[in-house]
Amino acid sequence: GRLEAVTQQMGYHPQYLDSFLKTQHYLMHMDGPLPFDCRHYIAIMAAARHQCRYLVNLHVLQFLRAGGDPQWLRGLEFIPPKLRNLNEINKILAHRPWLITKEHIEKLLKISEWSWSLAELVHAVVLLAHCHALASFVFGCGCEQDEGLMGRGSLKPLSLGNQCFCEATAGNSYGQELLRINRKRSLDSCMELDSLRERMQRIHVETEGRDEMRLLQQDREEGEGQGAEVGVQGGTAGLSPLADTDGEVTGATNLACYMQDPDFGYQDFARRDEDQTQVFRVQDYSWEDHGFSLVNRLYSDIGHLLDEKFRMVDGLQSSAMAKRQGCEPSVFKRGIWNYIHCMFGIRYDDYDYAEVNQLLERMLKVYIKTVTCYPEKTNSEMFDRFWKQFKHSEKVHVNLLILEARMQAELLYALQAITQYMI
Q1: Per the record's keyword annotation, is Oxidoreductase included, yes or no (predicted)?
Q2: Which of 175, 210, 286, 321 is 20 to 30 A off residue 295, Cα-Cα?
Q3: Confidence (pTM)
Q4: How far apart are CA 179 and CA 391, in angstroms?
């Protein structure tokens, strides 16, 4: 039977897949502050911000299985005000997370009939960040165009025990079958990255540093007219599914019913016509020193799972890259990670941002920025066309870096705002 597309792609890196499935299962199916149906509806709201029908459909199915009210699927006007009030931080985290403030947190937590508890809000924030970032992976790997979605018109339960990645747990036969199939699959042919190796070697003698704001401004200049270079998903026509007797989800309503202010989108953090925007300094608030302990205290154990996932993607090794003489995969990975955080205004004082321009050629930067900031504008051709010298598993690796770097960026801003509220 057809293996679910997200896990099929992640299966190129089985250790990461194991960590991802554990986190996904804990977020959606284990004890936690939020009711199960609300968790899946929050996931629907998050995925809709990027018009990700693939994730919306999966979570609609799970929402109904969890006993959710089918009326809620008619749109935000049909859900409780408490859930609807989450829309503002959903919108901000999805597109411009640097705008979130302690006032947004205070508004949700203030004493009222529809107030959130701190624990509930942390659970919701992790869900939102998780699904926003996962939407980037879905579009980046072409899962949105997966043939199993039958032209995006319907979603049928999966054949392996009717499991989707929302339900799969680590260590079961699902992951083992995935590993077996991926081991048998022949990977794409790969050209040696001589030019990359040469650029990486030049870094070691690079003496001229560049400010990260200049990097962002250059990226903005390169990205103007980007719409002509990258494929743009057409329209916002989506699905507002209903379940039939076979468990199939069908329907044809606009995904906009799950959104407010649909025109709100990513905007470059560094604007040429403005003074330097206040950057987020990791030295002042980091995941390791601040975010981890806060999230773990308010939503037990999730911090450990997230931390494992961040460390897992950082530890992934590309055998092809590692064997190339003179290449340090860790330098390449850090360049991608810091470039993504740079787009969200997050700065590492100990990093020379000249490395980004040396390591990442223009078209790769366009790809990373599109998948990170405008995932709905990607299409399957982008995945196949860009950086053809990479193996398929290496492309998936880059998309995993995008997923985790974006998720951590959203969490840093949200958790910092919660910390400021608590002080």
Answers
A1: yes
A2: 175
A3: 0.80
A4: 17
